[in-house]
Structure formats: structure tokens, C-alpha cells
Amino acid sequence: MSNPTGLTGAGPNLPKHARVVVVGGGIIGTSLAYHLAHAGWKDVVLLERDRITSGTTWHAAGLMVSFGSTSETSTEMRKYTRDLYARLEAETGQATGFKPVGFIEVACDKDRLEEYRRVSAFNRYCGVNVHEISAKETKDLFPIADTSDVLAGFYVKEDGRVNPVDVTMALAKGARMQGAKIFEETPATGILKKDGRVTGVTTPYGNIEAEYVVNCAGMWGRQFGALAGVNVPLQAAEHYYLITEEIKGISSSWPVFEDPGSYGYFREEVGGLMIGMFEPVCAPWKIEGIPSDFSFGEIPPDWDRMMPYLEKAMKRVPISMDVGVKKFFCGPESFTADLRPIVGEAPELKNYFVAAGLNSIGILTGGGMGRVLAHWIMTGQPDVDVTGFNIDRVHPYQSNPRYRRERTVESLGMVYRCHYPTMSPETARGAKRSVIHDRLAAAGAYFKDVSGWEGADWYAPKGKEPEVEKLSFGRQNWFPYWEAEHKAAREGVILMDMSFMSKFMVQGRDAGKVLNWISANNVDGPSGMITYTQWLNELGKLEADLTVTKLDDEKFFVVVTDTAHRHAETWMKRNIPSDAHAFVTDVTSSYCQINIQGPKSRELLQSLTTADLSNEAFPFRKAADIDIGYARVLCVRITYLGELGYELYIPSEQAVHVYDELVKAGEKFGLKHAGLKALASLRMEKGYRDYGHDIDNTDNVFEAGLSFAVDMNKPGGFLGKTAALAQKAEAPQLSLLKRRLVQVFVQNPEPMLFHAEVVRRNGKPIGYIRAASYGHTLGGAVGLAMIEAGEPISAEYLSQGKWDIEIAGQFYPVSLSLRPLYDPEMKKIKA
Fold it and tell me: In sequence order, what DSSP letters do the residues of 658-685 get, joined into one string?
């Protein structure tokens, strides 16, 4: 990036080499430098193009809130950050402005009340001291608020506020005290790289060689990433707060008060009131790029656009409408497409890390983010679940100007929307479509965003239009349609489009050897077989959960979920030795994937092909090219639903023809289209895992119940085997494990499970739901929960306890199982 200061001459005396160069002197960059230096990596250089905090940190509102997330990673980062800010002044002598005055979030409608009751139960499980309080108690704590329509407040006494500039300066001072070097007015103008690895940075004052470079450039993160060919799709938007003149009687000891329904948060500010805002329809700023000389900058506020939102916010605190306005501030803040940070090692460039796109929670997660990233860089592995915010989930097209312009409006607006569990993005849609999309639309599909793809979520019955879903935490308008699709898979036959699945062809003389090393299971057996396997890292923790089909000795077909597309591709490529003859090709768009599943699936397909699909000729796990009409199709006998079934991989140009043949022949067998809601409920009844949802990078195969897909005896071993053997030695029998993923079934058929509901044994919280659905065959909600007992978790342990689950403030009896609740003997699959 260009030099914003216009400085010339000798400039600072930069070192020629550093172990880590951090680019960006905001809260995230200084926190990372602080944590690296504290952990013993003293050779750290931080470059700031202007002054510390000059980007967006300086104008942050400074909320320090631990309440509000159903991500364990995010909640733990918030708690750590709060504790760090509380002790930082004593360590550095630099004030942080941290004041634990408390925090209240109010719910003024029944849906938000349900959301916050769900969130608060999970947050309590994570150690956040949140209490539900009445409207009167809320009024007592924040007397100037109108609480006449408040149903409840959610109060955390230990939360509060911090001064963003002061706390950043304290982190910078703490980093320097430990040996890190910080250079202001020193922009990084580019990066150096060799053989796919970063080797340093360029500046106007000379180059710095480095083992690691970390992009903490905030709203410049996309532009700085682009200099290295690294995709960081974030976008700045206007972000507002108003400060009133002095209000008599207001106290700096009052808690921070937040009401998303009124678009605002409120706190005392120099005797007046700060009213911060997240409006539902925002204005992106500088789509073309943030000026390199924009420092401590403000944007002229758009009074006309913001007035309706501002008036609604001010009505929550009526006195604010009767005092003068001291300042209506507008400054830029960057947001990402899914409102999650972009963090981790870039797929495009080894040892180039990113921590950007914090979506207005940089201050309240900054300490924790610095700790997590420092550990990740130093050890090569994160020690928390990073599947939700890993940079390798984002795609290049998300950096397109039009995409950023349209999606950012929605993503900022989502901050204060009620976070319904089935909510799907509505903007920047239609970017990726299956080749049979129009056919599915004609069949009544209601589409949702699936990693950018248009995925059929459910189907309206014949003769009905797929009306827009009415969001809620209960049964929605499509519930009976979903139930019918689920039952059709269990009793008849369904067609499901899964073209969004990530597909890779791995070819070459050493393809089998390489994939067998990466995979924990033996994937290099006989040709024409599919193998379910995990990929592990050196710590024996999960990196992916997928299938590998051996087509012949030098050709393998790897299929992994949509969310792990770039992660799996990067993992493969980085684990192929430089001298190996093996090549990875992304063929996702080359094949349409249609799944034909259910007890009648064999009959339907057999009516269309001359291939022998009998159980003897085409057993479970077999893969072969078969004829359907004029097309050649890779047919794999496998299921993710728990029934007899087949996955068809069809060359895209022949997919419409095959689809038409399937539908025409399917009339005789009662073929029904099924969407992703049915996929979720069917696989959940069977207890099938989904990486990034119910299993993640903090789990090992034994805890996840996946040891059956690991071959400890195969020749040559596999990546992570040493660690896996050590894990097995700690608990030679699975019944000795003290941490296990179990299936949870709610015995009352009414409540719905989604995520983060807390499971208790004999009244003691012992785990939470990672992913869930409604089991239409089982007759109730069902989920997968990681149970951490502190003692061996055996079938007897599960049967002897009294188990229940908290759902929105109410407790329901549940039963737990280590074996699949549906067809544990796999008789239907192998029929």
C-alpha cells in the first residue's frame, strides 16, 4: 500500500529480519504482537501505516460484552478478553478505561425472548454470569430507559466498557515490554514470497524478511491481501453513534443498555448519552477501495437516511429527544459476508495469516483473538474450534464489487436482527446454481444459500407455490412438507440434488499412496470402492470428514461437504510431497450430484440401466460407471440418510437428461423430491456426522465415535497415527472415554432443537447440542451433543443418569445413546 504519511528520507531503522511481521496497529494487531511476545516469540515486528488505532479502533464504542454468542469459541474469546483488560493496567501501567459497570440486553417481543433465553442458557454453561431480570429491575439499573414494553432483560454484572484507544496502547506497551518492535508511520507496501510461501514484506524504508506475515489491516485487509494474491472479502460500511449534551442525573456507573429491536445500544459518555446504532439497511463505503491516507477519519453523516432509525432508538430513552446533540458520528467499520471474522492461514500462501473482518466486535474479542492466533502461528494448530471463521471458507467471487455492495447491506443489518436458526442470506443470491436448478424450481423447490449455491431446502406440494418461509423458533410453514419428504425417504424413494458438494479428482502414479497417507482409513484398496474416512493432523485431531472413491490405480474421486471446499483442497495439496506424482483437480462444477435414496431406490434405478444393481453384483460401497438413457454416470452405493441408496455423479452437460429420465421413471415408484431439511433430519436420526457442525478440529476420532473409519494396521501408517495411538492408549476401550459425542433425543414431541441447548445429568450441565434437527421417524427433536463428564462415559453411565435439556428456559427429559437411534444394525443400508 502507498505511504499515507508522505514521509521521505531515511525513515525508521527497520530490522532486516523478523520471525513474525504483523501488519496493522489496531486492537487485533497489537493483541497478536502482545501474545506472541508474551509466549516467548520476541522477534516480532508490527508495522502501522500511520498511528496506532488510526483505522477503525479509535472510534469504536468500547463495549466489553461476554453475552450474546452461541459459539463456544467466541464466548471463550470474550471472557478471556474481559479478564485481560481487567489486569492489563496493573501489568503495563497504561490505563485501559475498563469499567465493569454491567450490561443489559432487553427483549421486547416473544421471539427475541426465546432467542436470549436460549443464548443465556448456553452462556451460563460457558461460565458467563448472565441473569434474566424483569422490566422493573431493568428500569432500576438504567432509570432513563422506557421499559414499558420490555418482556425481560438479560444482565451480566461483570461486563461493561473499555476505552478502545487506551486498551490498544496498553497492548502495544505490553508487547514492547516483552521485546516486540512497533513502527508507526511505516506502511507495508507489499509482500515477498517464494515457492508458495511468504518470505517477508516490503516497505518504503526497506524489506523485512520474515517467517510469518499476519494481515491485521482491518478495513484495508482485502486490499493488502490482494497484493499477495490472498482473498479477504470484507467491506467497510457507514457506522453511527450519537452523543447527546449532558443529561442531569445520568451516571457513569450505569450498565451498558442494548435494545436491538430499537436498533440501538446506550451508555453514559462524558455526562451525556452515547446512542450507538446498527441500522437494518446500511450504506457500504468505498466499494472501490479504502484510501490509503484515511486516518482518524470521519464520514459526513447522512441525517436523512438515518433519521427514522435514530428516532426509533431515541424513543427507547425518551430524555435523549429533549437534550441537544453534541455529536452525530459516522465512521467506517468492516463487515464480512456471513458476519464472522476471517482468520487463519491463507489457502493461497503458506505462513501468511489473516485476522480481519471483526464485524464490530473487535474490541470485545480482541484479546482472545490475539491469544488464539498467536497459538495457531506458534504451534501450527489452533487450540479452539475455528471451523466457523477459518479464512479457507471464503471464495474469490465474494470479493467482487457487486457482491460486497449488496451483501454488506444485509450483513450489517443482521447484527440486530432476531437470529432465527433457519435464517438464510437473501442478498447476492443466484451466484452458483446446479445445472438442474430450473427443473427443481419447477418442482416447487424453496432455495436457500448453501456456501453460495442455491440449494433446494424443501419443496412445496404439487399445485402450491413455495411461499417465503415465516421465520420462527417453532414449526414453520414448511414443516408438513419437510415431514412428507422425510417419510418418503424412509418408506419409498426420493431425489435430492447435492451438486454443491465439493468434488476433487486426484490422479497420478502416487495418487493412492498420497491419499492413503492423508486418510486415516485405507482408501487404496480394490478399484471401484468408496471409503468413508477422516483426515487428521499431527495432533490426531480432525481436519476433514469425507469419502474417497478409488476409480483405478491412478485415479481417485474425493467428495467433501460444501463448507470444507477450500479447506480440503488446501489440505490435500499441502500434504502432497514435492517429489510425488499426484495432482488435485477441483471438478465440483463438472459433475451434477443427484442422490436417489430410499427402500425403492434400487428398483427405480434398475428400471433405467442395464447394469446389474442386485445386492450381490452391486453391494454397499461399490462404485461403477453405469448407463442411464444416453448418459454415462458414476453410480456409488452409499448413503448419508440411513437407507438403501445411491449417489449419481453426472457430467454436467448430461445432467438435465438424466434428471428427466429419473423423474419420468420415478412416477411408477412414487418418487418424491426432497430438500436439505430432509437431509438434516434423516442424517441426524442416523447419527451421521458433519464436520464444522457437530465435529470439529478440537475432536479426535474416538471422542467423535469415528474410530471404525480408522485403519491402524494399514501399511505405511497415516498422518496423525502416532497421536491417535496415544489417544487410544489413554482409553483402550471406548467406554473409558470421558469426552464423547452422543445422540440426544427429546422425549416430548413438541420442542425444537437447533444448536447450543445445554444437556444436564442429574441436574448438572455436562455438554451441549452441537447440531440438531427434528426426527420425524423417531417422533421428536434429535441432536448430537459432546458430553464432557470427567468420568468414563459408557452405556451404563448414560442409562443410570437422569438426563434433561434446557430449551428456552424450560427443561425436558431426554434419552442419550452411543449407537444410532435409527437402524443401529445398518440392515436397511445393506438391504
Answer: HHHHHHHHHGGGT-EE--HHHHHHHHHH
